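Subgroup meeting minutes
Present: P.N., E.W., G.H.
Scribe: E.W.

1. P.N. recapped why we're keeping a running log of single-chain structure predictions: easier to compare across weeks, and new members can see raw inputs and outputs side by side.
2. G.H. added today's entry (213 aa).
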Amino acid sequence: MAEIKRESPVQFKVSPLKVEARDNWTVALEYDEEGQGPWLVDLAHKTRWDLQDRKVGELTPCDLAVPEAPGECTFADNTLINRMNRTQASIFHLGAEAPGLPDFSGYTDVTESTVFLALFGPKAFFIAEKLTALDFLDPAKNAPFLYQGPFCHVPCQIVTLEKTADGNGGFLLTCSRGYGDSMVHAMLEAGSALGLRPAGENRFNAWIQGLQG
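Output recorded in log:
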């Protein structure tokens, strides 16, 4: 039987310089001339789960606590848990490997049904403000935090992982798979004047490891 080939819902117009085959995905590790940032990285291959349970706040996926209030996030050991509402949380696995889906009816693997992008680096939020009215630089919010709202007029989950007052930092964005190419086109066009370029997983991993110390 032929292996299943997994494909990202987004395509950049430039080909990666280095790739790696992983779990039937072709993962872009590096692009030529990635520049000094900001960067846009396709993370479609990173495992994402949806978790729903009436006692979701009492659960400990990957031995991490689900945050108490909607909009709050827990980030440790390459795992990000986002509280969405009273009964729901989303879980992003940001490392090279993810654990198997737990044997619990509340979990759903949404990896292949959604877009997953990271935009980060210098002036990252100056790009975001062209595409949404959400305030990523709200001084009352400490990263990481979750927004659920429109980005490019598309319903999204957006997690700010890092922010500074001068517009630097970055965020993760996920939405329905069908919006992939349109989302990437809008983001690259909005960021063209600021030098936004596609980058590979190596660049993303360096950012994430820096955030976790």
